[in-house]
Specification:
Strand content: under 5%
Radius of gyration: 23 Å
Structural class: mainly alpha
Oligomer: single chain
Distance between the termini: 37 Å
Number of strands: 2
Number of helices: 8
Largest sheet: 2 strands, antiparallel
Helix content: over 70%
Shape: elongated
């Protein structure tokens, strides 16, 4: 089978559109875009997903892949993919922030581990919450739903698809503000229980000022904090699923569905 130059340009242009969106997604998306994944694996995954999504992508026609219009479209789809991944990442960051709140309240803010997704140090309890969220995300087939949304968005889009509108970007910013609300909702049972413990220590310090509460209260707070965290884990799947559903609503708007 022989290919002339126009056919080769059409194939390259048809691959550029989905490859740009998938590449932008892998730059910011959780799990799939973690820093612990080698760059070669990310490149291979981006090419594989792009080849799968090419039949669903809009036909570029006789578009020159080296033209200004094609490059502008590629940059637009790169931004759209990055925005989609960022919207989903906010749900994971809410749980990480919730773990940081609980850790600082129970006295474990100094316990640091390496975040495999970001590549820097982070509180251990926050990473524990993120690890559980990752397992829940994979168990609920969130990665497959994300790929399905990409396919549906490409099927309904056009080659001249523009950047997300003002309403879509405002929805993304509004969802980002829910990060703090979601973090407080996840951490609220543990924070309320530890607040009661601290009130009890305050009453003891007034009744017995000579007692060294620092040496006694610190280990008690940590032990009770672990018990409260263990008891509150049953509410974590429901809270994360609600955050994930809200994130997918924003993702659908960004994907043009």
């Amino acid at each position: 089978m022989n290919f002339d130059l126009s056919q080769l340009q059409s194939l390259v242009a048809g691959l550029m559109w989905p490859l740009a969106r998938v590449s932008g997604l892998l730059l910011t998306a959780p799990v799939l875009g973690a820093n612990s994944i080698p760059p070669r694996v990310k490149i291979g995954l981006a090419l594989l997903l792009a080849l799968v999504l090419v039949p669903l992508a809009p036909s570029p026609g006789a578009v020159d892949p080296l033209s200004i219009a094609a490059l502008v479209t590629v940059m637009q789809q790169l931004v759209v993919g990055a925005a989609i991944g960022f919207a989903l990442k906010l749900a994971f960051e809410a749980l990480s922030f919730a773990g940081d709140l609980v850790a600082s309240t129970m006295g474990l803010g100094f316990a640091q581990v390496v975040d495999p997704q970001q590549g820097h140090g982070a509180p251990a309890l926050g990473q524990f919450y993120v690890l559980l969220a990752t397992l829940i995300f994979l168990a609920l087939n969130g990665h497959l739903e994300l790929i399905a949304l990409l396919a549906t968005g490409m099927h309904h889009a056009s080659w001249q698809a523009a950047m997300p509108g003002g309403n879509q970007l405002w929805n993304l910013l509004e969802f980002a503000s829910h990060l703090f609300t979601g973090a407080v909702l996840v951490a609220l049972p543990a924070l309320a229980s530890l607040l009661v413990v601290n009130f009890g220590f305050g009453a003891i310090s007034r009744a017995a000022p000579s007692m060294n509460l620092f040496s006694i209260g610190f280990p008690i707070t940590i032990c009770l904090g672990f018990v409260v965290v263990w008891l509150s884990l049953r509410t974590l799947p429901g809270a994360f699923d609600a955050l994930q559903r809200a994130a997918f609503v924003v993702v659908r708007a960004l994907a043009g569905i």
